[in-house]
Amino acid sequence: MKRFFEWVATWPKLTVTLVMLITLLLASQMQYMKIDTDTEAFIPPGHEATLINDQMKEIFGTSDLLWIGVIREEGGIYQTDTLNLIQSLTEKVRLVPGIVDQDVVSLATEDNIYGTADGMEVEPFMEDVPADAAALRQLASSLKAFDIYDGFIVATDGSAAAILAELEPQELLLERGLDKYAVYQSVQAIVDKADAKSGEVFYVAGLPVAEATLGLYIQEDMSVMMPLVFLVLMVLLFFTYRSLRGVIIPMFVVVLSATAAMGIMAGAGVPMYPTGSMIPIFLMAIGVADAIHILGKYYELVLSNPDQPRRDIALSTMDEMWRPVVLTSLTTAAGFLSFLMMGMVPLQMMGLFTAVGIIYAMFVSLTLVPALLVLLPVKASKKLMAQSKEAGLEEAGYTSVVLARLGRWVSHNNEKTLLLTSLLIFIAAAGASLVYVQDSYIANFQQDSVIVKADHEINKRFVGSYQRNILLDAKHRDAFYEPKLLKSVWAFQREVEAISGVGGSISIADFIRRMNRVMNEDRPEMARIPDSSDLIAQYLLLYSFSGAPDDFAEVVDSEYRQANIRIFCTSDNFIAGSHVEKEVNRLAHKYFDPLGVAWSIAGNAHIGYVQTKMITDNLRFNIMTTVLTIFLFAWAMMRSLVAGLFVMVPVLAAVILNFAVMGVTGVTIGWGSSMFTSVAICIGVDYAIHLIYKVKHEFERLHDIGEALPLSLATTGKTIFFNAVVVVAGFMVLLASQMPPNQQMGLLVSAAMLSSFIATLTVLPALIMTARPRFIFKGEAS
Amino acid sequence: MNLGKLALIIFTLSILTGMGAVLSYSEEMTGLDVMKRVDNRDDGDDLTQKIYQKLIDRRGGVREREMVSFRKDYGKDNKAISYFLAPANIRDTALLTYDYDGTERDDDQWLYLPALKKVRRISSSDRGDYFMGTDFTFEDIKQTPELEDYNWSLAGSEVIDGHDCWVVDGKPKSDELKKNLGYSRTRGFIRKDIDVNIRTDYWDRKGQELKHFNVTELKQVDGIWTATAMVMENVQTRHRTEMEFTDHKYNTNLPDRMLSERMLKRGYRSK
After folding, report:
1. What distance in Å separates the CA atoms of residue A329 and residue A693, rounded to the nearest whole number?
2. What's the gap in Å between the CA of B216 and the closest CA on chain A?
3. How far is B171 from chain A, CA to nearest CA, in Å?
4. Count of C-beta atoms within a 10 Å radius of residue A567
5. Distance between CA atoms of A630 and A721, rounded to whole angstroms?
6. Which of B92, B116, B118, B203 to mutate to test the interface with A (most CBs of A within 10 A)?
7. Domain A1-32+222-380 bears CATH identifier 1.20.1640.10
8. What SS3 state is found at B69?
9. Which of A392, A489, A565, A668 sits at a 20 to 30 Å CA gap from A372?
10. CA distance A551 to chain B (A)
């Protein structure tokens, strides 16, 4: 290693050029960056839930619908002008490229099935928009009487109508040079241009909208937050070092490593997931640490030996610092790599490429940084020089004075410190146990955003924009002509619709019940499944003379072997979802197992539920693997089991405290907050590593722990303080994100960093004083 | 000027006029001419045949139907009755259709449901509606489209399967018609030798390719060219309908009472 740094010190300009060239080469890959906000991305490929969902899409079409709500509070939508508006909107939406024309569903597209004296009629609800009061009343009552559509395409109270549109599959969109966001924009543009003369209000909601908007937010977030973190770091570094070099050197490290990591990610063909937007922020906040610690040591040496040649200072800085820099980088990287153990690709990639960036930051810190230190002239604040000359390093600056004092207090009150902390942790444990899981896709958006408002309005007025689909496979053709099975489907639906959070359901049974009713003089009591399967087959044949061939494609396959019960839910939040999932499972067992009909659950609400469940189920595992990975790493690198344990203590205390705060303030575990623990551990552990190295170093020199501790706190403690301030400030920038999970994550990591900094400077010294571990007190009698 | 000179001049003029007429012979047929020839082709006065329908979805799921059908022309109108033979759950279901020329009068349709033992009238369908769950719309299933609803243009000639064909483009005359028919454009390939349309491509209202129609088997039955197998494929949904026709009998002088509501209930009795 020494030879390497000497080479760097001899060829500083060459080193700088080489590092810059490599980084530029990697950065050029960024042009291939893609964005993926697909909700299903969180579920590992080949997972049962995705397979079933794909199977459903293949047979019955997607459950991801775009909902356009047309609301007219005054007098309702059954008025000629509003109906005209609905018709023209529907027509325009059908012609939007990327929208499946024949799958658009609204008052203006759907057929009414009704009985006449001599037959069954299947006719559009609105062949022409009704113009007189009687015809309007007729339309309202025919929708009211058709239970499939009541609440689905019109609100039950008549205050709103929905236009539902299906997007073409992703591959087809790409083929046509479109994406979800472009399609959503075209639809939104049509809605915005709509001439709402009578005070109609429009809302566009549904999963495609949320996914499209999230993709936009990721891009906007990146373009806002990156420069912001940049600015915050520069300001902080300037106030810390009050020199250009103090700003330039750390900035080089973070910018180069963030650029390289994103370039490598794009080059590897990995898309940007919602989690990916965090990577540059992480790297900015973490990568800066190496440089700060190297600079800290550098200034320490400059202050103690101001007259040494700069090449020697740079070399002795690196000689002392490369071990902690490598160790902290590797442990942090290893910690992030433990995300690979989680099944979810977006989290895996976030972990992987943060780790890649951290290693790159280490590479830059060990090459470019010493090269720049050699190139730049030695300079340090005259005031600090004078102070340190007079009274030693412990008096160099206000921060050092305070920290040295803290060190002295802790070393005299080590037992007290430990007891006090223990008490705090016991109390915190009670608070931490209050934390629970709650998440939803819509929670990615601000409470007052248009999307949340639209989601709320649509789900308040209609059956619900989140679907769970029960896929039934009766294993032989024509099974869904059989009255026994159809009756079970209907009974199942009736029970499912009673579950809270379920707005309604649609199945082939509903259409057959409707036909039976209209074929029996429209008597309401005849809205049931007839007893003859031949009759059912003949109804369907009769229907096929006026209906489209794909009218039932969404609820039954063409062989009548498989069916799809569409269950509409009004929310995708995790707690409500768990309840619905549990009940639906119970009812499916009850109704379909005895008939030997295989069933499975699919749909976007189910996918969302499975996804959240995976993240949170994995959370325990993730925390444990992160802790274990870092512990094993520290143990191996410091060649001491106890050192490994010591390294973990401050950050674990910090995490416990944070969980307590979450529990008390009602912050729940979702995909944003679930990552914070591991991230905090990965970053926070560095503080302990640096401090332990320093204490060990000083103790070997001074042979007096009472002296070594305050000195370590005054020097390395100060650097840790700077480091913590930078990381906290860096993560606070996430508050500027448009996505609440990012904001939450920023706040939680900041808080965890703050407390882990405090724990490192108090609990860790107290622990060292009390336990007198051998990895520090080597050879000394304890 | 003497009479002789006048006669010569008149004679010269008459020759020139005559040659002019000769030289101004029509160089090409129009699209409409071709479609008229298709429309006027002899298809018999009545026809008895068995129809076999195969509906195939994109995953290969198959539904089959078999029926026997009787058709009789009444001038430009025609009447037809079809009895379902298979599958078993719709056996003896029977369909009676009165198809009126032009668009002024809606066609009449009745269906007899044996499970209900009742005849049900079927509402007149839009021309763009699909016929019995097949990929054919009511418009497609007719011998020829309503000629006056389209602007026809001859796009040239092309050889299809070794046969020289006219290529005729049809565009519905109005947006309203486009919406009703579900097409923005069609392109037909008509065999020049026998005036039979053997292939049609359809484009939807957004101008995207929608369906392909192909005659897969063409035979002369009793001197009349008859498509005995055809397929319609929706290239967007990848759903496909195959139809086969067998046991043709043309011009057997079907009695009028064969094509009445009474016969619906009686059902089909093969001789």
Report:
1. 14
2. 23
3. 18
4. 29
5. 22
6. B116
7. yes
8. strand
9. A392
10. 9
Cα separation, A710 vs A409, in Å, equals 9
Q: Do the interacting molecules here have an ipTM over 0.85? A: no
CB contact under 8 A, A122 and B55: no
Secondary-structure breakdown of chain B: helix, strand, coil percentages, each rounded to the nearest 5: 20, 45, 35
d(CA A723, CA A429) in angstroms, rounded, equals: 28
For residue A124, what are its two tokens? 């559009």
Decide if A558 and B111 are in contact by the 8 Å CB cutoff: no
Measured from the Cβ of residue A573, the count of other Cβ atoms closer than 10 Å reads 23
Interface of A with B (CB under 8 A): 58-59, 95, 97, 101, 116, 118-123, 478, 481, 519, 532-539, 541-542, 544-550, 557-559, 561
Give Cβ neighbours of residue A658 (< 8 Å, ≥ 6 apart). Answer: A676, A677, A680, A748, A751, A752, A755
Do B245 and B49 contact (CB within 8 A), yes or no? yes
Q: What is the pTM of this model?
A: 0.81
Give the C-alpha separation, A552 to A563, whole Å: 10
B106 token code pair:
């809606």
Domain range summary for chain A, segments of one domain joined by +: 1-32+222-380, 392-450+640-782
Cα(A764)–Cα(A694) distance, rounded to whole angstroms?
12
CB contact under 8 A, B90 and A546: no
Q: Please give the DSSP secondary-structure letter assigned to residue A167.
A: B
**Rounded CA separation A391/A386 (Å):** 9
Domains and CATH numbers, chain B: 31-266 (2.50.20.10)
Please provide the DSSP assignment of A46-111 as one string. T-HHHHHHHHHHHHH--S-EEEEEEE-TTT-S-SHHHHHHHHHHHHHHHTSTTB-GGG-BSTTTPE
- Contact of B59 with chain A, judged by CB distance below 8 Å, is answered with yes
> Chain B: residue nearest A93 by CA?
B206
Task: Give the pLDDT of chain B (271 residues) as one tens digit per residue.
Answer: 687 788 888 878 878 887 776 776 655 678 888 898 888 888 888 999 999 999 998 888 888 999 999 999 888 888 999 999 989 888 889 999 888 877 777 778 888 989 888 888 776 667 777 888 889 988 888 767 888 899 999 988 899 989 999 999 999 999 888 888 889 999 999 999 999 999 999 998 878 899 999 999 999 998 899 999 999 999 988 889 999 999 999 999 988 888 888 888 887 775 4
Q: Which CATH class is domain A392-450+640-782?
A: mainly alpha
Question: Closest by alpha carbon to B153, among B170, B137, B136?
Answer: B170
B66-72 long-range Cβ contacts below 8 angstroms, 24+ apart? B68/B247, B68/B268, B68/B270, B70/B46, B70/B254, B70/B258, B70/B259, B71/B46, B71/B47, B72/B45, B72/B46, B72/B47, B72/B254, B72/B256, B72/B258, B72/B259
Contact B134 A122 (CB under 8 A): no
How far does A559 lie from chain B, in Å, by closest CA? 6
Query: Residues B147, B200: contact at Cβ < 8 Å?
Result: no
Q: Which of A101, A116, A541 sits opposite B90 (nearest CB)?
A: A541
